[in-house]
Amino acid sequence: MPRYTYHCEACRVRFTVQMSYSEYGQREISCPRCGSKRVRRVPSRIRVLRSEGEYLEALADPGRLAAIDEDPRALGKMMREMSSALGEDPGPEFKEVVDRLEKGQSPEEIEASLPSGEE
Known about the structure:
Elements lengths: L2 E6 L5 E5 L20 E4 L9 H8 L2 H7 L3 H15 L5 H11 L4 H7 L6
């Protein structure tokens, strides 16, 4: 059965009600906390499915790319999102680099700490 989220205008609590499609609009809803019938339905989030190409294109938005030059955390976040979008396991070395970027370490510091032969 579907779940519907409501907001009580009396006590401001948010709650969920499970009911069938046939009950929706027929059943009287009241707040489980205060009993008020002054409730309004909160619309559910809408999800839009995008192709892998559209998703990667959105990740490569020039507005986002400008931040990666100045903020290692933004670079790490973008790298993690792109890796996740590709659906492949990049390996422990990649994960370590991304973790260090997300903690604020610069790419130059990370590169300098790598053993020789790994770049």
